């Protein structure tokens, strides 16, 4: 079955994850696709394909090489879609032989993909573009990755004459809510390294992500009846507001930075007179620079509190994920082989730091070096999400070539 046909089938499953849920997977509907993927893998010949108690699918493509020194490598994609946009009743549309025309989505004619707004479309002339119909996301993030891995698995399992080492496959739930690796059993997966297929344009290879902390600053005041509060009340809401007003405005914020710059970003305030907490995320490509930003936030908060007698401050910092480059730098062959495989398919390698994290950021620090390969996804989490058939086909080729490169460059024993 072609990668396009698989993709069109998978996007019809509603697999939205839910951050308010405490179960794993966070939504039972993800299991419908996960179970079907395991069954499909078994039908293709991956006899051990199974779903574990947390919904993770793992399977093996047995080695075909005679060499004994070929490491096991893995490919990973997530099945869930973003809670930010409906994934129910997705109606995929294939726009054949794109020629630069506006792509109007029929269920909401105000949803239009224009090359003027989306420069990457200019690279897609003659390609078949898949979109949703205007009222939902498409789910190319990351069902493109799922379809690509499945199609490569079908190819490898039906071409035993192509030598490769053992290949492990995993499909995971709940990536979009930051829990995609919570129950990922790296030891059971048993690969020396892995590649997520969850990236953008053809040729992209992501080896660098943010390092990320969450910081909560809680301002403690004193509440009393406002009619009798003179000289006694200390209003934590006003203290928090004064602190927020002192945050850097022209720099160090998401709205004023890009490229290699980090930021601090307040995103939730829980307020009462007695106690107000400000939740921030702290991001930088250099892990040590997170500390500088946290020190700055602490200093601004302490200076603010000092001007409000009776107020106090508590601070909590939580590590979220780390720049995977710190791990991948110790495993250069993982990157080099990806470069070689991408070039073999005729594409130019594009590397670009991710201003965010991937499952690979966490997996790399759990002992499984995992860069991210392109899957052809564009306009993530949006009604204007799209993918091209040709990019998905290239991603399938890259997976197959990666297996070949690892085999060719490995020792005999
Ligand atoms: Zn994704």
Short description:
The protein contains 10 helices and 17 strands.
Folded structure, characterized:
It contains 10 helices and 17 strands. With 413 residues, the chain is of the alpha+beta class. The strands form 4 sheets. The chain has an 8-stranded mixed sheet, with helices on one face. A 4-stranded antiparallel sheet has the order 12-13-11-14. A 3-stranded antiparallel sheet has the order 4-7-17. Residues 78, 141-142, 175, 198 line the site of zinc ion.
Topology diagram in text:
Blueprint: H1 3-10, H2 29-44, E1 50-51, E2 57-61, E3 73-78, E4 93-95, E5 103-104, E6 112-113, E7 129-131, H3 140-157, E8 167-172, H4 186-189, E9 193-199, E10 204-206, E11 211-220, H5 236-245, E12 263-270, E13 275-284, H6 287-306, E14 312-321, H7 325-328, H8 332-344, E15 350-351, H9 359-365, E16 372-374, E17 386-388, H10 389-408
Parallel strand pairs: 3-8, 3-9, 9-16, 10-15
Antiparallel strand pairs: 1-2, 2-8, 4-7, 5-6, 7-17, 10-16, 11-13, 11-14, 12-13
Bound molecules: zinc ion (ZN).
Zinc ion (ZN) is lined by residues 78, 141-142, 175, 198.
Shape: globular
What ions, cofactors and ligands are bound? zinc ion
- Taking pLDDT < 50 over at least 5 consecutive residues as the criterion, the unreliable ranges are none
Average of pLDDT: 96
Structural class: alpha+beta
- Main-sheet strand order equals 1-2-8-3-9-16-10-15
Approximate strand percentage? 15-25%
| Largest sheet, strands/sense/barrel | 8 strands, mixed
Helix tally? 10
Q: How many strand segments?
A: 17
Q: How far do the termini sit from each other? A: 36 Å
Listing every helix as H and every strand as E from the N terminus to the C terminus, the arrangement reads HHEEEEEEEHEHEEEHEEHEHHEHEEH
Rg: 24 Å
Share of residues in helices: 25-40%
